[in-house]
Design a protein that fits this description.
30% of the residues lie in helices and 26% in strands. By secondary structure, it is α/β, with parallel strands linked by helices.
C-alpha cells in the first residue's frame, strides 16, 4: 500500500468519526407536544403557545402526580421565529420533532390568515407533515391550559390516544398538515379539520351521540375536553362546522381516506325506544363515476358498499333468524344513509359551493389542460349544478358471536 493510499484511508476514517460533532443530548432538549396559535391585536403577529413535555418527570412513583407539561406563549409572526424567541426563556433547546398536534383558535381559522402563519411549517424540516390540525372554539392557549385529562398524566399520550379513539368512530377527520396544503393549493375541494373544545357549552342539547358539535355532548365529570365534528375550510379559510354524523358521512364518500371499521349507533326499526350498536365496515372503496356533457353539466353517481356487524340489540328483537326483520333492518340502514348523504351533498352544493369528498379528481380527465379545467370552475360552476345520485349498498349483516338474542319471554316464564 502506497503512502498516498494510507493518507486517503486515514482521511476517510477521520471524516466518519466526526459524524456526531453537532449532537444534542436528550436532557438538553425541550420536546414540544402541541403548538397553539391565536390572533392578536397586531396585524401579522400571533400568540404562539408551546406545550413542552417535562421528560424528567414521571420516573418514580412519587412523581406521577406532578405537572407533566409547561406552556410557553410567545408573540411572533410564525412558528419558527417563535421557537427561536422561546429559547431565550427556556434553558433547553426547543425541539419540534415530536409535535403531535397543531391547535388553531376558531377566530384565527375564520380570519383567513391561517395559511400565512402555517407556511413556515412547510419549510421547517423539524415540523412533520403528519401533525394533526385541531380547531378550537376558544383560544388555543386556553384550550391547552384547560385540557386536563383525569386518566392520562402524559399529554403526548392523551393526544395520540384521543385522536385514535375518535377516528375509530368516524366522528373526526384525518386532518394532517400535508392534506391541508394539498387540498388548499388544489383550489377545488374543502378541507376538514378536527373540531374540539375544552369548555362545556351551556346550550347542550339532547340527541344521538353523533349529532353534536364539540362542546354540546351531554356529560358529567371533571373532563370537559371534547373532540367531535369538523371545521370546514374553503381556500384556506374556515367557513362552517360539521357535526360528528356529517363528518362520518363525508369520510365514507371520500376514497382518498383510508377508512377502518367504525362504531355507529343505528335506529331500531322495531323499537322507538332502543337503538342498535354496530360496527360499520367499508371493505371496498366507493364506486364514483362522473359524466360530463359539452356544456360542463356533470352527473355524479356514487355507490358505497357497506357491511354491518351488530354488536348490541337492547330491544332483543330477533334479526338473526327472522328473515322479515332482517330485511326491514337492511332497508332502514340503506334509507338512513341515503337520505343523510343527500342532505349533506345538498348542503355542500347550495351553501358551500364546494365538496369535501375529493370528487374533483374524477372530473379532471375530461379536460385536456389545467387551464381548461380551471376555466370550467369545478367549485362555482360544475359541482354546484351537478346531478348527484348516492346509494349505500348493504352487502352483508353479521351478528358477532351469537345470532339469536336472549328470549325475554323465556327469561320471565
Amino acid at each position: 500500500m502506497s503512502k498516498w493510499d494510507r493518507i486517503v484511508i486515514i482521511t476517510c476514517i477521520t471524516c466518519l468519526l466526526s459524524g456526531c460533532f453537532d449532537k444534542t443530548e436528550l436532557e438538553q432538549q425541550a420536546f414540544v407536544i402541541a403548538v397553539g396559535i391565536d390572533q392578536t391585536d397586531l396585524q401579522g403577529q400571533y400568540n404562539i403557545t408551546f406545550q413542552v413535555a417535562q421528560g424528567q418527570l414521571g420516573r418514580g412513583a412519587n412523581e406521577s402526580s406532578e405537572i407533566q407539561e409547561k406552556n410557553v406563549t410567545i408573540q411572533a409572526s410564525d412558528i419558527i421565529s417563535a421557537k427561536s424567541t422561546a429559547n431565550t426563556l427556556v434553558a433547553r433547546e426547543i425541539n419540534l420533532d415530536q409535535t403531535k398536534v397543531l391547535i388553531i383558535s376558531e377566530e384565527l381559522a375564520r380570519s383567513g390568515e391561517l395559511i400565512n402563519v402555517l407556511q413556515a411549517t412547510t419549510r421547517a424540516a423539524a415540523f412533520r407533515r403528519g401533525v394533526q390540525i385541531i380547531i378550537t372554539r376558544e383560544n388555543a392557549s386556553d384550550f391547552l391550559a384547560n385540557n386536563d385529562p383525569p386518566l392520562e398524566i402524559k399529554p403526548h399520550k392523551f393526544y395520540q390516544l384521543m385522536l385514535q379513539q375518535s377516528k375509530s368512530t368516524g366522528l373526526i377527520p384525518d386532518a394532517d398538515i400535508h392534506r391541508f396544503f394539498q387540498i388548499t393549493e388544489g383550489d377545488a375541494d374543502l378541507f376538514l379539520g378536527i373540531y374540539a373544545t375544552a369548555t362545556k357549552l351551556e346550550d347542550q342539547k339532547k340527541g344521538e351521540e353523533d349529532e353534536f358539535y364539540a362542546g354540546q355532548v351531554p356529560q358529567k365529570g371533571e373532563q370537559d375536553t371534547q373532540f367531535i365534528g369538523s371545521a370546514v375550510f374553503k381556500e384556506g379559510k374556515m367557513i362552517d362546522t360539521l357535526t360528528g354524523e356529517e363528518t362520518r358521512l363525508a369520510l365514507m364518500l371520500d376514497n382518498t381516506i383510508s377508512m377502518d371499521d367504525i362504531l355507529v349507533s343505528l335506529p331500531d326499526p322495531k323499537s322507538d325506544v332502543h337503538r342498535i350498536s354496530a360496527r360499520l365496515i367499508r371493505e371496498r372503496k366507493a364506486s364514483i363515476h362522473v359524466k360530463m356533457d359539452g356544456q360542463n353539466q356533470a352527473e355524479i353517481n356514487v355507490n358505497v358498499p357497506i357491511h354491518i356487524e351488530l354488536l348490541a340489540v337492547p330491544s332483543l328483537v330477533d334479526y338473526g333468524s327472522d328473515a322479515a326483520n332482517l330485511q326491514l333492518l337492511e332497508e332502514m340502514i340503506e334509507e338512513k344513509y341515503n337520505q343523510e348523504a343527500l342532505a349533506l351533498i345538498k348542503k355542500t352544493q347550495e351553501t358551500y359551493r364546494a365538496e369535501p369528498f375529493y370528487w374533483s379528481l374524477y372530473v379532471r380527465r375530461y379536460f385536456k389542460t389545467i387551464s381548461d379545467y380551471e376555466e370550467a370552475d369545478w367549485n362555482n360552476n360544475i359541482y354546484p349544478n351537478a346531478n348527484v345520485k348516492v346509494s349505500f349498498d348493504m352487502e352483508a349483516i353479521r351478528f358477532g358471536k351469537v345470532i339469536r338474542n336472549t328470549g325475554i319471554a323465556e327469561v320471565r316464564d
